[in-house]
């Protein structure tokens, strides 16, 4: 990815490797795009959190587990899925509201 405004950029060549310009790529599990738009990343994080929630919903609804155990599950497993790489996000009001809705 190139941070310049020029549209026509030739591939960068180093030794025998050629690197093409891309608009979006995944780095360490986080989506990075050329516009620095975090909406897609937040949508992906919420979708991953929803998938994980539906995988463990039996445990969260079980009467065999205590409230403390369920809280520990949430804080140890579910919340980190949602907040991974959140330090780099620039949130809009809409994104913030969506994250708060998921938290509820």
UniProtKB/TrEMBL annotation:
What's the protein here called?
Uncharacterized protein
Give the species. Answer: Aphis craccivora (Cowpea aphid)
Q: What is the lineage of its organism?
A: Eukaryota, Metazoa, Ecdysozoa, Arthropoda, Hexapoda
């Amino acid at each position: 990815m190139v941070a310049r405004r020029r549209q026509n950029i030739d591939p960068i060549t180093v030794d025998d490797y050629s690197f093409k310009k891309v608009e979006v790529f995944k780095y360490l599990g986080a989506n990075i795009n050329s516009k620095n738009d975090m909406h897609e990343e937040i949508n992906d994080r919420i979708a991953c959190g929803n998938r994980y929630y539906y995988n463990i919903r039996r445990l969260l609804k079980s009467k065999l587990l205590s409230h403390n155990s369920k809280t520990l599950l949430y804080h140890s497993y579910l919340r980190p899925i949602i907040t991974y790489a959140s330090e780099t996000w620039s949130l809009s009001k809409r994104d913030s509201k969506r994250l708060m809705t998921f938290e509820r």
